[in-house]
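Technical note accompanying the year-one report. For the benefit of new consortium partners, we illustrate the data format agreed upon in the data management plan: each record pairs a sequence with a structure-token string. No post-processing was applied to the example shown here.
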Amino acid sequence: MFTIVKWGYHLLALLGRVRHHEYEVTMCDDVENVITEYVLAPDSERAAWQALELSSQRNCTLKNVRMCDEW
């Protein structure tokens, strides 16, 4: 069960209990500087796609994506 909410010109689906995990994204730029960013995603596949998009926006090479505090 979910609820549709109108917010401005956008329709948002409120799905209730969607858990997001924090993922660490490691990238390298052209001069081999290591850059670490963090993304929130519901699963590892979504985190990987977000990391790929982030690295292309930063003109960097994506090196690694891992869940923070993963046991």
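Partners are asked to follow this layout when depositing records. The longest helix spans residues 44-57.
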